Amino acid sequence: MATVRDPEATKARIFEAAVAEFSRHGIAGARIDRIAAAAKANKQLIYAYFGNKAELFTQVLGRCMVDLASAVPIDPDDVDGWVDRLLDYHATHPELLRLLFWEGIEYGSAELPDEEARQDHYARKVAEIRDAQERGVITDAIPAGDLLILLISLTNWVSAVPQMRRILTGPGDADQDRLRASVKEAARRLVAR
Predict the structure, then answer these.
(1) Cβ neighbours of residue 75 closer than 8 Å, sequence gap 6 or more
(2) Predicted local confidence at residue 1, as pLDDT
(3) Residue 171's Cα: distance from chain center in Å?
(4) Nearest-CA neighbor of 5 among 36, 35, 34, 41?
(5) Rounded Cα–Cα distance for residues 183 and 90 (Å)
(6) What are phi and psi of 141, to 5 degrees?
(7) How far apart are the C-alpha atoms of 88 and 188, rounded to whole Å?
(8) Which of 41, 89, 129, 190 is 20 to 30 Å from 137 by CA-CA measure?
(9) pTM for this one?
């Protein structure tokens, strides 16, 4: 009896294996052989479905960012809620920040392969911040793009460097709750009119 192929299931397995591989080893350290083995897929299928290793990384990171944007849309009208949702998302999806760090290590300030799409992605977020500024909901003393990167940095950094978070603020649940409250207070102060 012939085996029925399911290309979408194979692509999904490859994608999940690639997320794990790239978040552990970065672009340069990742190995297509390991991705294929983890996905129980033929190595040639990876190239056929996703292109070379750099193209696969770009697709993986791009989709992870779309997933974040969909799960945690920016909400300048509810900064506390947005910070909570962003912290919770990164706690359950630590791979996204790792992927972004690896991208930064690999590309530095050079243009990204998907630069235009990335600019569009962030332009929509900056427009939401600018709209909130124009409506008087948040401060306009800081340019919208600058304010967005400050809020993202403030919120993401505590997830990106868990070792520093533990050392500086403590390892317990009460310490984490206090830090979350502090991050929210800092975000409120950043956007305050």
Answers:
(1) 81, 82
(2) 54
(3) 24
(4) 41
(5) 14
(6) -75, -20
(7) 18
(8) 89
(9) 0.90
